[in-house]
Amino acid sequence: MAAQHKRRAEGRSDSSILAKITSSPIVSRGKQAASDAAFVSKKLLRSTGKAAWIAGTTFLILVVPLIIEMDREQQFNELELQQASLLGAPPTGPAHK
């Protein structure tokens, strides 16, 4: 019976120590810092996503048509070189593959 009473007293002291630790200012500051860090991370992730969307759509609208046009120009130049060589004219530029 005395052993049970002693265990109950130890259980109360454990819970009171736990209560003191969780209500300490250090723990509350840590929780606040973690909450602030999560908030900033969420905002940063959202703004990074928006910036990636803007960069991606700008690339598709401006750069991809430029690349396609440059490829067409290169194919056209190669075709002119082939036709000139078939007609017997000396090549005007180096042919590369």
TrEMBL record:
Principal subcellular localisation of the protein: mitochondrion
Keywords, in A-Z order: Membrane, Mitochondrion, Mitochondrion outer membrane, Protein transport, Receptor, Translocation, Transmembrane, Transmembrane helix, Transport
TM stretches of this protein: 51-68
Highest taxon above the source species: Eukaryota
GO CC annotations, alphabetized: mitochondrial outer membrane
Keyword NAD attached: no
Gene Ontology biological-process annotations: intracellular protein transport
InterPro entries in the record: Tom22 (IPR005683), Tom22_pln (IPR017411)
Protein's cellular compartments: Mitochondrion outer membrane
Annotated Pfam families: Tom22 (PF04281)
Membrane protein topology class: Single-pass membrane protein
The family this protein is said to belong to: Belongs to the Tom22 family.
Name of the protein described by the UniProt record: TRANSLOCASE OUTER MITOCHONDRIAL MEMBRANE 22-V, translocase of outer membrane 22-V
